[in-house]
Amino acid sequence: MRVLVFNAGSSSLKFGVFDLPSTALGDAQERVRGTLDRFGPEGCDLKLLGQARRRAEPRDLAEATALVPALLAKAGLDGFDAVAHRIAHGGDRFERATVLDDLTLKQIRALTPLAPLHNPANLAAVKMAQQLWPDLPQWGVFDTAFHLTNPARATTYAVPEAWRKAGLRRYGFHGTSHKYVAQRAADALQTPLRDLRLVSLHLGNGASACAIAGGQSVDSSMGLTPLEGLVMGTRSGDVDPGLFGFLHRQMGLSAPEVEDALYRDSGLLALAGVSDMREVEARAATGDHAAQLAINLYAYRARKYVGAYAAAMGGLDALVFTGGIGENSASMRRRICDGLEFLGLKLDDDRNTTVDLRGRAAPQIQAYGARVNVLVTQTAEQLMIAQEVAEAMRAARPMPIRRLPVAVSARHVHLDRAAVDALFGPGYELTPARPLRQKGHWAAAERVTLEGPKGRLEHVAILGPLRPHTQVEVSRTDSFALGLDAPVRQSGDISGTPRIRLHGTVGAYDTTGLIVAARHIHMSSEDARNWGVSNGDMVDVCLDQTARGLTFTHVLVRVSDKATTEMHIDTDEANAAGIVGAVEGEIMGDVAITRRHG
Ligand SMILES: Nc1ncnc2c1ncn2[C@@H]1O[C@H](COP(=O)(O)OP(=O)(O)O)[C@@H](O)[C@H]1O
Ligand SMILES: CC(=O)OP(=O)(O)O
Ligand SMILES: [Mg+2]
C-alpha cells in the first residue's frame, strides 16, 4: 500500500511517500522525505532526504504544496493508494484517522478559527490533492486525537459554564509527534510505555510539552488553540488573559487584532526580531541582548512545564526532545535541563553536544547514574500518519482466514557427515525412504538409538538431507527419559546444548545439539503476503478441531520461497491438544498486535 503524506505546519511543508505492507503493520518503507521551509519573498529552502539543502521558488505554503506533484514526478513516484493529511485541529470529534469527505471537511473547516495558522494550510493541501488525484481516498490524521485521553481536570478552563458548553476547552496539539516520540523513547529504553512517565518536548516553530503516563497523553501545554503554553516562533504561548482588556483600553485594539498579533507577531519574533531559532541563536552569539533574553525566556518556560508535568504525574522517568529545535539545538536542551537536577535530571555535556539522529536513532544524553533519562529523537509525523492511515484502511477490509495444516514432529535427528561416518561407516549414504512435506526433505530408511544417563530411545528417525551440524530433537518428556536437560530452541540454535550419544549400525557418536524444538510455522512467501505475516513474527495459533482444543502462543513464523505452509509442534504439544490424525490450526487476531506483544 503506497501512501502520500502531507504535513503542513505553521512554518514548513513536509511530505513523504511510504510503502506499507497491505495486510498488517510491518516496516514502512520511506520512498521520499521532503521539507520546504524558511519561506520569504525570494523563495524557500528545499530539503529532500539524501540530497543537499537547496533553494526553491515557493514563497509560501500554498506555492510549496503546488510544487509537490512535480517533485514526486521527478522522483518517479506514483501509484498511490491514498493521500493522508496532517490536520492540526480536529476538536473532540476525530479520535482516529478519518476519511475526508464533504461532511468531515465541513467539520474541519468549522474549526479553522481555532487553528488559523494550520487548518487553512492543511485544507489547502487536501483541496489540491483532491484535484490532482480525484479517485484516491483522502485521509486526515489529527494533532488533537492523541490528547483526547486527557482527564477533565486538564482539559477544563475555569470559566463560565455557558462558555464551556459552547466548546471552550483545552485540546492539545502535536499529538502525532508526541505519540511517536513516546513510543520511540520506550523502545530505546527497552521499557514498556505503560511503565513510563514521560515529558515530550516538541520544539519546532510551534512548540508544545506533553505529559504522557502509561502511554496516554494526560496533559498538553497547548489548549483550545495552538497558542497556549511554550514560547514559539511567532506565537506568545501563555499570557495573562487580562491583556485583552488592557490592550483594548490602552491601545484601542480589538480582540481579533490582539489574537492575530499573539499568533503572528509574538514569540521569538517579537522578542528577538526573528522567528527562526537558528537566527536567534546566531544573534545571541554576537551579544544581542534581545536575542539572549528570548532564548532565556524560551528555556525557562519549557523548564517550568517539565517541572509542572513531573508534579502532575507524580514523578518523571524520561524527558524526550524533538522538533527542529529539540533535535538540533544542544544549547537549548542544556538551558532547559539546567536547574532540573532536583528531579534527578542531569545532562551529560559530551553526549548532548554529539547527538547523532541518523537512522531514526534515539540517543540518551543524561549523565551517568541520573535518575531521569533524557532522549533526543527526530519526530516522524509523516511516518505515523502513513501508518495510522494504512491501519485504518486495513481495518476496513475483512481479515483473511489463515488456516494451515499442523504436523507433529516425533523425536528425530539431523546428521552431519561426521555423524553418518561414525554411525554407519565412512562415506555411507543414507537411503531416502519417505518424502516430507517441505520440498527436498525426507525421512531415511536408517534409524538411530539415543542414549542419555538415564535411558535410551530406540528407532529414532533420521531426517535428510545432511546438515552442517548434527541436531537431535526430542520432546520434553523424552528428555526426562534420557536424563538430559534439553533446552527449548529454534532449529539451528544449538550453542551450549547438552551432549548425547547416538548409536548406529557400526558405531556410536557423541555430539552436542540436543534440543526441544520450539514450535514454528514454515510459511510460503505467497501465504505470508496474503496473510500479512512477516518472517520472524510471533503469532497465536488456535487448534479448534481437536478434542482438547488449544491455542498456542509464541509461534515463530519462518517465511521462505521454498516453504510449504505448515506448523510444526512436538509430541508433548500434540498430546496436550489431543491431536489424532491430520488437523488444521488458525492464526488468530491481528498479527500486528501479536507481534508488538511478542
Ligand atoms: N540547527 C538548529 N539549531 C537551532 N534551531 C534549529 C536548527 N535547525 C532547525 N531549527 C529550528 O527548528 C524550528 C523549525 O522546526 P520544525 O519542527 O521544522 O518546524 P515546524 O513546526 O514547522 O514543523 C525553527 O525555529 C528552526 O530555527
Ligand atoms: C500545532 C503546531 O503548532 O504545529 P506546528 O509546530 O507545525 O506549527
Ligand atoms: Mg511541525
CATH top-level class of the largest domain: Alpha Beta
CATH architecture of the largest domain: 2-Layer Sandwich
Beta strands, count = 28
SS summary, helix count:
20
Shape estimate: elongated
Helix content, binned percent: 25-40%
Low-confidence stretches: 592-598
Name the CATH homologous superfamily of the largest domain: ATPase, nucleotide binding domain
CATH fold topology of the largest domain: Nucleotidyltransferase, domain 5
Structural class: alpha/beta
Main beta sheet, described? Answer: 9 strands, mixed
The tally of structural domains comes to 3
- How far the N terminus sits from the C terminus, by CA atoms, comes to 24 Å
Ligands and ions found: adenosine-5'-diphosphate, acetylphosphate, magnesium ion
**What is the CA-atom radius of gyration, in angstroms?**
31 Å
Strand content: 25-35%
**Mean pLDDT across all amino acids:** 94
Enzyme class: transferase
Keywords: ATP-binding, Cytoplasm, Kinase, Magnesium, Metal-binding, Nucleotide-binding, Transferase
Main location: cytoplasm
Function: Catalyzes the formation of acetyl phosphate from acetate and ATP. Can also catalyze the reverse reaction.
